[in-house]
Amino acid sequence: HLYLSNLISRHDFVGLQETHGTPGKARAFSIREDSQTFWSHWDQRSSGVGLLVTNSFLSLFSSRPPVWEEVVKGRIGRLKLRGEAGNLDIWVCYLSAKSELEREAHMLAIASRIIPAEAALSIIMGDFNLTVSNEDRWLKATAEYSSESHPRCRAVLQERWKTASNLQEIFQDEHTCESGLVLSRIDRAYCNQRSSFRLDMHVGCTALA
Description:
By secondary structure, the chain is α+β, with helices and mostly antiparallel strands. It is built from five helices and 13 strands. α4 (about 100-110) runs parallel beside α5.
């Protein structure tokens, strides 16, 4: 609770994954008076995503009230913000850890709802539970990279996200997930901002535990 309060005091919004929450817990949860929370629950044992947003940031998008959409309950949420300064869609996700078919379906659900960059900036962040390069998973026992691949999800990422929707990764090279056997880079963020807007800057991100 204190950690989240500190995070939102220094950022415009914070995405949460694997919240394991319930509607009752969400109603009882209070973070700061100067921010709002948005939740999508599944059950207390798995899944769940959330988004914390400061009121000062929300005030920049005053044309319409913010709209929170549970795209896939407990897995994918989208906050739609509209204002005179522009339009912004903030996505937070926790994709299936066990089924590539489910992950593929989740990624296709996002792809079908992405708005062209000319109409809205989209930021997608969360735990994707998949590797996208051969160096994303490191085996402790052999000190080698895993040859594991997720071909169906990688195909959706390339064809539907990158090519069709211009979604590019806001890169961070840390292996953010550690188990007894491996180190994995499965937490990431994507944005459909045109590359021409980033010619004079370096954009990166860090997944916080």
